[in-house]
């Protein structure tokens, strides 16, 4: 089938060299292993460690540290598979390009479309988080108060006004905190400027930071690299300081029970914790700007993942040791929360660090998305203008501007809740295809200076792990079958996972698949089924939209299609 036409690795490498030779319009090769590692840390250590870890700790208790280990192992399998591809296909495009090699054009398009959820749409969430941290910094450190109507999206503002009005009208007894929150919502609604009778709300700080970061990404990778390196050094230093300072306030009694809601409670935080990890794959989008991509890309992915995992586990244990897990309900700034009464001056340092941390995430994602679009444009799946390289700055100029406009407008007006889960689905989807794609690559001998994924025969290990999984989850399996007629979609997804995992285990026995990529596929599949079903609905809507665009434009304009004609 023509939709499954594949690209050969040697052709991709030749095309990349050809683009460099066209009027010397190639990207600047300025990144070394240290820069790439810092970019990985910049992408991973951000909103997750400063905000979503609070909700995960409330559900999972101190056991959320175990979830960080599980998620790190899951990402570790994927990182090794990314490293294999990065060593063989050292060009921009990330999972999109890798899928083109392994699965064919339509799958590559699907994953390229899904990656928009991770980079562009995911960056909307990060920008909204940045706005909250920035406003907190202005109020508590500089005593500057921005108008409420320029700090919130329209949907959130109207919903808060309606809820507050209903609560106050009911005459129910309200706590001082609830009363202050409801009055805040009503005042924001009443003070907002209007067009006719419609109040105007928008998130101005989120838009401004996207505009500034887009400008930085536009003017050059060298400037972006220097900025990212500085921000990483600062925020890692602050996190280490928080871990050391917090250790003096840890009460080990708060670690009991370690998993208050059992493993099920720990897994409730899977979306939040996984969202904290996405981004290490953004390193692969800068392949054409690396001095030695086949050597440095694999190393930097693994280094950044290991460093971030150690930081995450340490911070989770310190937070849940300082405060009982039940106190993290509804806490959006857990690091500042635990020091609020113990050491207010540390809270101010954390506020500054949160702004810096989320800025670095925005920067890396704003670098990643344009380079994926550039690769898709080179393949004819997007208009040629997306591959345009700025003659002076040597960056994908048009793609960078489009990314900035999409993310900026989204950050100005959109809510962030649903987008977090959509981002996790898109990222896990990419991880699954990268891990599965490694299994389809032709074997090659180990070359000096290149990463080679070690082969571990999964013929016996994978079936044994499947049996152990079924044993430990036997109660959930029985309950899912007993209540299948009126069961939640989550359990139906769980049963589907069991069937798919069994098929993969049987295929591993027959074909002697390598353990690492198979475990990457299975672990990412499991994390996928823990994401709420409503997010899956919107994900499929997103995918159908992408397929419509592919068949209307990409299918006919594909470089492979034209060469076949």
UniProtKB/TrEMBL annotation:
Where does the chain cross the membrane?
36-58, 64-85, 106-130, 200-221, 228-250, 262-280, 301-322, 349-368, 398-416, 422-441, 453-473, 488-506, 513-529, 535-553
User: Which ranges carry the Cationic amino acid transporter C-terminal domain?
Assistant: 515-558
Keyword annotations for this protein?
Answer: Membrane, Transmembrane, Transmembrane helix, Transport
Keyword Transmembrane helix on entry: yes
Q: Where is the protein situated, by its record's location annotation? A: Membrane
The record gives the membrane topology as: Multi-pass membrane protein
Q: What is this protein called?
A: Amino acid permease YhdG
